[in-house]
Amino acid sequence: MEERLPEEIDLADPELYFNRELSHLQFNARVLEQAMDENHPILNRLMFLCIFSSNMDEFFEIRVAGLKSQLEYSREKNGPDGMHPKKVLSLISEHAHKLVRRQYRILNDIIFPKLANENVKFIRRSVWNEKQAAWVKRYFRDNVLPIISPIGLDPAHPFPRLANKTFNFVVELEGRDAFGRENGLAIVPAPSSLPRLVKLPDDVCEGGDNLVFLSSIIHAHADQLFPGMTVKGCFQFRLTRNADLEVDSDDIGVDLAGALRTELQSRHYGSSVRLEIAENCPLHIVDSLLKQFELEQQDLYRIDGPVNLSRLMAVLELVDRPDLMYPPFSPGLPRKLASSGGLFEAIRQRDYLLMHPFESFSPVIDLLSEAAKDPSVVAIRQTLYRTGSRSPIANALVEAARNGKEVTVVIELRARFDEAENLALASRLQDAGAIVVYGVVRHKTHAKMILIVRREGAELTRYVHLGTGNYHAGNARLYTDYSFMTSDKEIGDDVHRVFQQLTGMSKELKVKKLLHAPFTLRDRLLDMINREAENALKGEPSRIIIKVNSLTEQKLIQSLYKASQAGVKIDLIVRGICTLRRGIKGISSNIRVRSIIGRFLEHTRVYYFFNDRNPQVYLSSADGMDRNLNNRIEVAFPLQDYKQTRRVKKELEYYLADNTQSWILQSDGSYQLSKPRKGEYRSAQRALLSELADNTR
Questions:
Q1: Where is the Polyphosphate kinase middle domain (predicted)?
Q2: What is the 3-class SS of 439-500, one letter each residue?
Q3: Which of 197, 537, 575, 584 could form a disulfide with 602 if both were Cys (CB 3.0 to 4.6 A apart)?
């Protein structure tokens, strides 16, 4: 048993915590490394490179922008690690520059050559043959030139206001124009309506798929944008701005949707946070742009290739090469859910637990569709976070409302980067006759709940769906998440009470089985952690396994430290940010932390406690973060069936045994990829595919 922690040791000591933002960058680095993993098909490796680019965009738009705002407005706030925001920004710049350089080396030296070997080629303008150059010239003349608007810079043409992440060129010119102007610089915004990748026709190529970048097309014909002038240089660049919406709850009044619509209009023009520019752009032009955007050298990223690599996702639509991607699979479906007896009958007989994407998401959609048509269903209530205004879920709710059901939907308008889509969804539901509310102003509604009320004889029966992920059919093929369907009376009563709090106004209502943030979830998790510690101190078996996307909440981490010190064996499966510092003798020696990065995005949240040989398992929409446990509407729901509890434990063990896609957190904050011995390859996601997919049970 581990030596007990002396009382004088302060568990709030900054030395016990990693920095949140630097841990976030470590996660992005692990995503980038998937582009190097030869176990992934080559187009999937390209996808990971694109995902890394998209992740970094959001990191700068939100996290870096937030740190810069703290400094700008003298609101510096050190995190639990004690690091000043200015120091954090400096370290972010150092690490991010290394990651971006590695990203482009992987793209240019590995991904492009391997795709070329598979006859998928990105044709640089320097190697266009005569036919290709002629075709590109016609494409420029017919599709680009008519809609592009070059802007010369002079007192009558000030520097244009460039929107966040738009694709632009800065052009260096020589000569005088028709009006005698010779400023020397111009800006060419690339129209957003134009594709960033263009596929060359087969008749100008020698077989295979041949693609050219819009940047190459514009660069090759920049002189046509400035007739009579000499183009000395043309350099692509992209500006990243602060994209975090700041809707002041004190100024909202009674119209959150209206306030959000107003704020959305300004999202594209927040303060500057990053400048990406072509590697060969002259220093005097770079300095001019940095000055224009009020940025420093550490905010500058010179790019050896196209800016905004996330747009390379278009390759998947332009190139029909399924042999270069993971083969498709059919998600599994429990036999009784697939029977013709109807979902209400099946759920009335027993609870169902599904794990997506290995098992089908269709029962969730079918449950709502069946409810929309069933004359016995009188009411439907649902929370929506990221769904889509034209999704199957939205369609079922619209149909239900039009069929006279009492449909109440709690839409979280402030789901980051889905705000506009959620506003459109709210309008569509309201037009159909549904009651739409926006949750609680100061607390995002992140819980995933459906409550269906059905008249059965003389009684009303509640049917419930609870999940760890969003009600989005597309995400359910990419993210790992649990779905739980039940007609348990007490859980139905609990969900009903949570909806009462969300849609009406009341004091905190007691719930029997659910854990409910911001009221009971964190404290009950702390209680269960402390109980394991007490059992360990008494010499009883103890065990904690927690699987979340991120772990940053300080009190939760401190409880885990205390449990570790008491001798509890703790396994943490944390996909992304983890500020807990493992490997500290006498404090976190009994804690192991791993991150699983694979074909699917790990998204399940599971809290497992050995509980004196009577295991307790809670599944949740909540991560181990301050925002989830203290500032959001979240729920955690228990598994009451022993077989389901045992099943989830078994699935957690798959992740703990993974030695091909698991990254182990080291004591210095770095992550080390597991290296299996020959013949001992174990992948959790592959095991779950094998066990759950395409398997009628």
A1: 131-314
A2: CECCEEECCCEEEEEEEECCEEEEEEEEECCCCCCCHHHCEEEEEEEECCHHHHHHHHHHHH
A3: 575
Cα–Cα distance, 409 to 434 (Å, whole number): 7
Q: Long-range CB contacts (< 8 A, 24+ apart) of 334-339?
A: 334/359, 334/696, 334/697, 335/696, 335/697, 337/363, 338/696
605 is in an annotated binding site: no
CA dist 649 and 463 (Å) reads: 26
In the chain, % of residues over pLDDT 70? 92
Q: Which own/partner contact pairs does 30-35 have at CB distance under 8 Å and 24+ positions apart?
A: 30/595, 30/597, 30/663, 30/671, 31/55, 31/597, 32/99, 32/102, 32/103, 32/106, 33/597, 33/673, 34/597, 34/598, 35/103, 35/106, 35/110, 35/111
Alpha carbon distances (Å) from 695 to 88, 354, 555, 684, 689: 49, 12, 42, 17, 10
Residue with tokens 């045994």: 657
Confidence of residue 2 (pLDDT cuts 50, 70, 90): very low
More confident residue, 148 or 697: 148
Helix (H, G, I), strand (E, B) or coil at 11: coil
pLDDT confidence of residue 418: 64
Cα 125 to Cα 213: distance, rounded to the nearest angstrom = 9
Q: What is the DSSP letter of 296?
A: -
Residues annotated as part of the active site: 446
Which value, to the nearest 10 degrees, does the dihedral of the CA atoms of residues 70, 72, 75, 80 take? 30
**Cα(603)–Cα(621) distance, rounded to whole angstroms?**
9
Among 67, 106, 62, CA closest to 85: 67
DSSP 184-229: -EEEEEPPTTS-SEEEPPGGGSSSSEEEEEHHHHHHHTGGGGSTTS
Query: Which of 519, 510, 381 has its CA nearest to residue 452?
Result: 381
Q: Is the dihedral of CA 633, 601, 364, 644 positive or negative?
A: negative
What are the tens digits of pLDDT across the range 514-530? Answer: 999 999 999 999 999 99
30 is in an annotated binding site: no
Which of 291-300, 415-424, 484-493, 609-618 has the lowest average pLDDT? Answer: 415-424
Q: Is position 386 annotated in a ligand binding site? A: yes
Cβ contacts of residue 200 below 8 Å, gap of 6+?
Answer: 123, 132, 135, 136, 210, 211, 212
Three-state DSSP at 71 gives helix
Of 425, 359, 419, the closest CA to residue 391 belongs to: 425
Closest Cα partner for 140 from 207, 214, 82, 72?
A: 214
Q: Max alpha carbon distance in the chain (Å)?
A: 90
- The reply to whether the predicted model has a pTM over 0.85 is yes
Helices 20-33, 42-58: axis angle to 10 degrees equals: 160
Given a contact cutoff of 8 angstroms between Cβ atoms, the answer to whether 426 and 615 are in contact is no
- Beta pairing, strands 591-596 & 662-665: antiparallel
Sheet hosting strand 272-278, strand order edge to edge: 151-152, 185-189, 167-174, 230-241, 272-278, 300-303
β-bridge partners, 589: none
671 in helix, strand or coil? Answer: strand
Three-class SS state of 342: coil
CA distance 216 to 569: 56
User: In the numeric block, which tokens belong to residue 610?
Assistant: 């050995």
Per DSSP, which regions of 357-401 are E strands?
377-384
Q: Tell me the one-letter amino acid at 575.
A: R
Query: Looking at residue 102, what is its pLDDT?
Result: 98
Q: How many CB atoms lie within 10 A of CB 29?
A: 19
Tell me whether residue 603 is annotated as binding. Answer: yes
State residue 339's pLDDT score: 74
3-state secondary structure (DSSP) of residue 174: strand
Q: In Å, what is the CA distance from 688 to each residue of 59, 389, 472, 584?
A: 31, 31, 21, 33
